[in-house]
Amino acid sequence: MSNETPERRGVNVTRRPMALWDRVKILIFLVLAFVVLAWHQVADNPILPVGEGLREVVSAHRWILILAVLEAARQIHFLVAERSASYHAFWQEQFGRTDSLTSRWSAWTRYRVARFAKFLFFAVVAILVASAVSGIPASMVLFELPARLFSVMPLLLQLAFALMFGILQFVGIFWFLSRGGIEVYFPEDVKTRFTDVWGQDAVLERIRENILYLENPESIEDRGGYVPGGILLWGPPGTGKTLMAEAVAGETGKPYVFVDPGAFIQMFMGVGILKVKSLFRKLRKLSTRYGGVIVFFDEADSLGNRGSLMPGGTFGRSPAQFAAPCCHGAAYLSEQANSLLIRDALVAPASGAEGVGPRRDNVVMGGLGGGGGMGVLQALLSELSGLTKPRGFLNRYVRRFFGMRPKLPPKYRLLVMMATNQPQALDEALLRPGRIDRIYRVGYPSKAGRIRTYEGYFAKVQHALTSADMERLALMTPYATGATIKDLVNEALIISLREGHDVITWSDVIKAKHSKDLGPPQDIEYVERERHATAIHEACHAVVAHHYRKALTIDLATIEPGQTYLGMVSSVPPEDLFTSWRSDYVADILVSLASLAGEKMFFDGDSSSGVSGDLRNATRVATMMEGYWGMGSTVASHEVVRDLGVGGSGPAGREHNRDMLSGALGSRIERMLAHLIDEAERILVANRHQVLAVAHALETHKTITGDDVAAIIEGRMGTIVDGRRYQHPDFAEMAERYHAEALEAHRNHAAVAVALPRFDDTTVGQPAPVFGERPTEDPR
To answer: Burial, 486: exposed, middle or buried (Cβ in 10 Å; 0-12, 13-18, 19+)?
Structure first.
């Protein structure tokens, strides 16, 4: 489907037809000016014949006739260009580009300059006519004429004029305050196309339908339908919502009006309403002139919210359900069961329940509407659905005065697009059909979308990455958006320049990803025994994750301290998945408990406070499995039991909750964790050598990739680590010896007696591990 207009394709067409009022308004003004001059000439000399008076006016003010003739010739030229394509093409070829200055101006600049020139023309003619009538020099008309007119007014008119002047002051102040926050881009100003939007093909296909109906509305209106006029794009930040709106404007060749999120923030009541009215007045003018217009409200949640009537929030969902798709359990229940659930949801949980506050998502909010303020949202709702009433003073009042029916306004082709990452904050009245007809989720790009986005941004720079590297990178960044991908490519370019590379290499990309994920490391240095303990801790996580957790792959492992951690092992999903299973959560708990099991195993039952976060995560997941997700030894949901107060209610609710946690539920959680920590210890015992090997790599390189972890365990070449070295028969003995020395240093809070083993690269074939020099002093 081609969205280009004939003008954009370069086809020989006629000039755009001009509205009747625009064609005749200057001629009418010049005729009225001539009539005023003639009336003044005849009124000053009553005995002068009318014909003689007209001849004197023509003789004294010949310039007004010259202007009328020139304007008539200009309109005849426009009329012929609107009828004859060949004449219009000839004129454009010969004279269309003679003015090099204005040809470089945007359409908006040319429009404003032309508007100012017309205003100046009308003002100059009016001043000359007023000067001829009053006898005041033209240079003094603006200063003396208002004072003379005011002095000859009756007292009542003077009072009315003073009152009107006071009102105009307030009108001017509010008009000035209502400016700003709205930007207009004309078709040639928008260069974005659908080919510039990567990774959101499914949403773009739906938006193309709206473009089709905007350009050819008769295709649906002739069959009794109406053109969908509103689109809401919601999803995480950086996924391309604003870019899509720009692409729609670029594809259609229609003006694009961008409404800033803070446009309706107001200091005085009523200013926001004036902004809304002014905005839609401008939209109607642009729609009439260009056959359509796209208006985009960025961060639409700033418009305000009068509150949701249903406990589920906007769209009938709670805010959490926007982030995690789940089965719509109420869909298959009977009407009676649904009524019971809704009635129960409207009731807050038992008062005094420990750790449970009132249900804030059930509270109906009222009062002011967010940043927009009182009246802004209501004015917006009125404008979105009230565009069919007759408009214009002459149309609405003069025609009625003469008993004529007002003319209906033209069909304004407005495509209203909104974007937000908080859809639950939008008012339900705003989202009803007729205002916002289509709601699309712009989520995180799929794997294929991420690959396409990486290819698009890497095509703009010099790089040495292959298509396989692009796919690996897409797998390593499962929740990357277009904005984060662009930033990652730019960071890789900066790192390649810093390293002196001619092109971006894979190592530059990995360093850029680590920099963005972890941030700059802290400028601190471990003592040797603490470095070894941290490496053992993270190596236990990595080895158990490699062997047992298949739903995720290791992204990186590091012992470089960050803002809130001493080390970490991060993982990413190998494919896009939307559901989680019991086995996945069991693997998560195993990986979390591996640190405690490993520290106790490698340090003779001792353990550090660094496992607190791991235990917290494991306990939280186990609690959800046992009490909420039906993945434990019982089926009942602890949430429902708690809310209904089964076994205790009223003032005893707090004690009942404590009993539940310390009783049956607490015992089940503890049994699950005890069983899984034994399983984690069994895995570590069976793979002790791999833990020491990964720990050695971490102590040597500080940060390694998930591919390096797999290479060490499998004995192959990794990204930055040669895993084959760790298969050398002498390495296991040296690693155990170094660990024994580190353990002894840990017991005595002393320095490690030997240095970290290193590989002797001078050895032919497989490098042999050797010990370095003995430390001469305690590194503390």
So the answer is: middle
Within-domain flag for 24: yes
DSSP secondary structure string for all residues of 170-238: HHHHHHHHT--SEEEE-GGG----GGG--S-HHHHHHHHHHHHHHH-THHHHTTT-----EEEEE-STT
**Mean pLDDT, residues 57-61:** 82
Residue 687 confidence (pLDDT): 94
Cβ–Cβ < 8 Å for 199, 450: yes
3-state secondary structure of 75: helix
What pLDDT sits at residue 2? Answer: 43
pLDDT for position 644: 64
What is the overall mean pLDDT for the chain? 77
Q: What are phi and psi of 230, to 5 degrees?
A: -145, 135
Is a pLDDT exceeding 90 seen at residue 758? no
CB atoms < 10 A from the CB of 358, how many?
A: 10
CB contact set of 766 (below 8 Å; sequence gap of 6+):
724, 725, 727, 728
Q: How far is CA 758 from the centre of its chain?
A: 49
Q: At what angle do helices 482-499 and 506-518 cross, to 10 degrees?
A: 120
Distance (Å, rounded) from C-alpha 421 to C-alpha 297? Answer: 13
Q: What residues pair up with 770 in beta bridges, in sequence order?
A: 758
Question: Mind listing the pLDDT tens digit for each residue in 1-45?
Answer: 444 444 444 445 788 788 788 888 888 988 888 888 888 777 777
Query: CA-CA distance, 615 to 624, in Å (whole number)?
Result: 14
Residues 430 and 549 in one domain: no
Q: So what's the pLDDT on residue 268?
A: 64
pLDDT band at 775 (very low <50, low <70, confident <90, very high): very low
Q: Specify if 594 maps to a domain.
A: yes
Q: What's the farthest any 2 CA atoms get from each other in the chain?
A: 130
pLDDT digits (tens, 9 = 90+) for 455-497: 999 999 999 998 888 988 888 888 888 889 999 999 999 999 9
Q: Quick one: CA dihedral 82, 84, 85, 89, positive or negative?
A: negative
Total Cβ atoms within 10 A of residue 348 = 15
Q: Are 714 and 727 in contact (CB under 8 A)?
A: no
> Exposure pattern of 435-467 as b/e (b: 16+ CB <10 Å)?
bbbbbbebbbbbbebbbbbbebbbeeeebebee
- Residue 338 pLDDT > 60, yes or no? no
Q: What end-to-end distance do the CA atoms of the chain give, in Å?
A: 71
Instruction: State the CATH number of the domain containing residue 499.
Output: 1.10.8.60
Domain end, chosen from 114, 148, 179, is at 179
Domain region containing 206: 183-308+366-441
Residue range 189-204: mean pLDDT, rounded: 85
Which of 238, 198, 202, 240 lies closest to 459 in space, CA to CA?
Answer: 198
CATH number of the structural domain spanning residue 189: 3.40.50.300
Q: Is the pLDDT of residue 381 over 50?
A: yes
Number of domains present in the structure of the chain: 4
* Residue at which a domain ends, from 179, 197, 228: 179
CATH of the domain at 550: 1.20.58.760
Judge contact between 426 and 307, C-beta under 8 A.
no
Counting other chains too, the contacts that 573-577 makes at CB distance below 8 Å and 24 or more residues apart are: 573/478, 574/475, 575/447, 575/475, 576/446, 576/447, 576/478, 577/551
> What global pTM score does this model have?
0.63
